[in-house]
Amino acid sequence: MLLFVTFINFSQKKYPKKYFRNPLNIPIVLAGTFGELRNNHFHSGVDIKTQNKEGLNVYAAADGYISRIKVSQYGFGKAIYITHPNGFTTVYAHLSKYADKIEKYVKTIQYKKEKYETGNIYLKNDKFPLKKGEIIAFSGDTGGSGAPHLHYEFRNTKTEKIINPLYFGLLPEDTKLPTFKSLIAYPLNTDSRINQQKNRTSIPFKNSGNGNYVADKISASGVVGFGVHVFDKLDKATNKNGIFSLEMLVNGKRFYYHDAETFSFSKSKFINLHIDYEYYKKYKSRIQKTYKVTKNKLSIYENLVNNGKLTIKNGLNYSVKIIAKDFKGNTSTIKIPIVGKESNALFSQTKDTTAYKIIAKNFNKFQKENVTIAFPKNTFYNDVFLDFKVENGIAEIHKPTIPLDKNFTLTFNVSKYSEAEKQQLYIANVAYPKYPYYKNTRKKDSTFYTTTKTLGKYALVSDKEKPKIKLLYIKDNQWISKFKTLKVEISDIGSGIKNYSATIDGKWILMEYNHKKRVLTYKFSDKKLVGSKHIFKIVVSDNVGNTKELSTSFYKKQAN
């Protein structure tokens, strides 16, 4: 039995830099940094490059025990969680395979459940105790990974808050300065102006070298804010990574600061208020604002003055500096000269009105033709007039440029369809009509509904096509004694693959699905085959129930 004692004082920014080792046996080169801006969340770890290979040894970073294992089709893929006796937990994800004793244990559970995904497997501290440097797994590309790498995290075991792994001595080579790509100025109330304009304004700037940028002089009035698109690169890598900290000084005084030391999973969704979400949805560029809006509950900010918002007075000059740093302290600064100038221009006040007004604090429900939309309380961060129309079977629910805090429910009345037609219908996001994206569709007698946090275009789409199955590298009745694996390619052009099940000689086998390559793989080492002739059968279903079966015979002598 292992005894675990916490000795770290979490109230202080002190982390044990020599306690943990490199989880790989290669120099650290990062493909992704902690706190990077991702879709609807901050990156919760670092992505360590594995030389574009799979199968590298992954080591326990310190003594501890495996407290959790999880196998998922998406997300982290194959992952291990190690609890250490000093109050931290390390996480290793996108693994290709576990170490032998762990792999055997996990496969026993998979075969018992007859399912690839395991859900969370929680373990006691005497099941898999570990020593620092012990091999726990092999690197891979499973789950939502875009290329082979190791996703590596540190968490406070008690609170589950995520901590930047670079605080623990994991330091890649980095001599490169952050790079500013865009600078945006924002009028933050109805009387504010930037260069006589009342809308967000892109500010030109020049790179003077050595991390120094100088913006064109601007005139402004009222309450204004700024935002920047900035990235960092590390040595030996071309990836555009996230920065560590962002700071804004106004006439030498700090007005804004945040850094990527730690954050909680529950608050990560507020990234959509941290960035200019509308700008991102339109232009696919993430602008980090140097001011904080009211509903933003992130705890990454420090020493804010007026939440980073500037009040510009007529006739006064202001010097604004926005400072970006990486973890090593490499620094780039953009200077913005401002002169306070009241606007003499007359702007007509455009009234934003529709028949569908959202009161954010209330439950809101609207119906048009055969479509109903229902928003729980506080789904929206602010009151808004919603655009909502139904044309040619497509429900357009505003534009997908407003971030939501919660899911809303979208319901289609399907009473006009026959039972056979209903069977093949599903709700899809049709932002790209040629590529409808399946939404989890719950079906009742006369209504179909789904829940989503994304506004935009939705429709009922029919899927009459069965999935496709193709054997790879073998033919019917072929001898394959030297084969170590059996591979099948599966695909679906409609609602998408929902599930699959395969057997050999009537007994369920574990096939791992690489959804990026659309290939299922079975390892013959999993089970001992009896006899030489065998029957392989696979059944694949899509999300509306269209089913395809394939059966083949093969010959294989079991290796001794």
Itemize the secondary structure elements and their pairings.
Blueprint: E1 30-32, E2 37-38, E3 41-42, E4 46-49, E5 57-59, E6 64-71, E7 78-83, E8 88-95, E9 97-98, H1 100-113, E10 119-122, E11 129-130, E12 135-138, E13 149-156, E14 162-163, E15 179-187, E16 193-194, E17 201-202, E18 205-209, E19 212-215, E20 218-231, E21 245-250, E22 253-259, E23 262-263, H2 271-274, H3 277-283, E24 288-289, E25 310-312, E26 317-325, E27 331-340, E28 356-358, E29 364-368, E30 371-375, E31 384-386, E32 388-391, E33 394-397, E34 408-413, H4 419-424, E35 425-429, E36 437-438, E37 442-443, E38 447-452, E39 456-462, E40 468-472, E41 478-479, E42 485-491, E43 497-504, E44 507-509, E45 512-514, E46 519-523, E47 533-542, E48 547-555
Parallel strand pairs: 19-27, 20-27, 41-48
Antiparallel strand pairs: 1-4, 2-3, 4-13, 5-12, 6-7, 6-10, 6-11, 7-8, 8-13, 9-12, 13-14, 14-23, 15-17, 15-20, 16-20, 18-19, 20-24, 20-25, 21-22, 21-26, 26-27, 28-31, 29-30, 30-34, 32-33, 33-39, 34-38, 35-36, 35-39, 37-38, 40-42, 42-46, 43-44, 43-47, 45-46, 47-48
